Amino acid sequence: MKERKSPWSFFSGGYLLLVLLFIYLPIAYVLLFSFNDSKSLTNFTGFSLRWYENMVQDRTMLESIQCTVVVAVIATAVSTVVGTVAAIGLSKARRIIRNIVLEINNLPVMNPDIVTAIGLMLLFISTRIQLSLATLILSHITFCIPYVILTIMPKLRQLDDNVAEAAMDLGATPWQALTRVILPQIYPAILSGALIAFSMSFDDFVISFFTAGVGINNISMYVYSMKRYNPSVNALSTLIVVVVTLILVLVNLIPSIRGRNTKEGDTEG
């Protein structure tokens, strides 16, 4: 006999559909109206690439995109390295020290962005450091590191410490044990932490607003400073969505392809 599906399953499915529509419908709306021929945000008058052309010709927008990408890439690279090393060190530290440091690490995550932003701004001003692109990058590195640590720590807890010790017993140096034993096992967590750091830096406005120098604007600050709504922002948003989607697809496909090739090689061997 076929089992009857409970009414709750239909309700949960409908609820999930509503949640997905609530999340992705605005994105689809932006994508659609990035090709609108007019400035209207409610009436689609025809297909056009004029807003993409305007985006390419808008020097201020291009400079803000360049600033955003440069800051995000540098902040992601530095925070990923520092956060990974810190997480590995904490995993080997005494329990009481690890707990204290992790509680301190949680403060920037739990604090509102405005508190972190004002604190960093006051730090730079009190030490007579002029606000500039360097202070913006340092600020992004500062608030990205805790997210990297929080992403990597759960994976480190799942590792068997005896594996690295066994590698050193077999003649591996501590550096070789780190690069050939520990890092390959936590690579997915490192990649996830890097992606989170990049998205946090790319999307940030509040901290950037308080720590950037005069004349330095990222995308969020550029949009905030617009006197009128510029439909080219829709084109920019569409390109960002496409790039992020491609990155996520590649990140998920490459490991599966490598695993499949490894299995085929083992089978042939």
Please give a quick description of this structure.
The protein is mainly alpha-helical and 269 residues long. It is built from eleven helices and no strands. The chain has a domain at 54-227: MetI-like fold (Orthogonal Bundle).
Report the average pLDDT across residues: 85
* Unreliable residue runs: none
Q: Helix content range of the residues, please? A: over 70%
Describe the largest sheet: none
Which class do the helix and strand fractions yield? mainly alpha
Q: So, the CATH homologous superfamily of the domain at 54-227?
A: MetI-like
Radius of gyration using CA atoms only: 23 Å
What is the count of helical runs? Answer: 11
Residue share in β-strands: under 5%
State the order of secondary-structure elements, H for helix, E for strand. HHHHHHHHHHH
- Report how far apart the termini are: 47 Å
**CATH topology grouping of the domain at 54-227:** MetI-like fold
- Which overall shape is indicated by the principal axes computed on the Cα atoms? globular
Give the beta-strand count: 0
